[in-house]
Amino acid sequence: MHKKVFTIVPFYEYDVDLIATELYRFHKDYIGYSISASAFINADTYVTEEKKKMSELIGKLPIEFAIFRKVSSGVHDYEL
């Protein structure tokens, strides 16, 4: 039996689009930022070769966007 490994998150969901659009202000890569926004909202882990750059970028998000986080494990490498 196979268990569910991941969920496909549509880029047009309100919270994903809102965060991706905010990130787009800093660099013009909407698809990449849709992926980053989906991870910010839904994931405990985000695999990247650019940890410092991604941390700085996420740090530019308005503090209010933290309400969109759905992660509940209690273990995060991200601080607001």
Fold and architecture overview:
The chain has 80 residues and is mainly α. The chain has a domain at 14-68. It is 41% helix and 0% strand. It has 3 helices and no strands. The relative contact order is 0.17. The model is unreliable at 75-80 (pLDDT under 50).
DSSP, total strands: 0
Q: Low-confidence segments, ≥5 residues, pLDDT <50?
A: 75-80
Average pLDDT rating = 81
Q: Give the amount of beta strand, in percent.
A: under 5%
Compressed to H and E, one letter per element, the order equals HHH
> Which range best describes the helical content: under 10%, 10-25%, 25-40%, 40-55%, 55-70% or over 70%?
40-55%
Radius of gyration, taken over Cα atoms and rounded to an integer in Å: 13 Å
Helical/strand content category: mainly alpha
Shape: globular
Instruction: Give the end-to-end Cα distance, rounded to a whole number of Å.
Output: 39 Å
Note the main sheet. Answer: none
Secondary structure tally, helices: 3
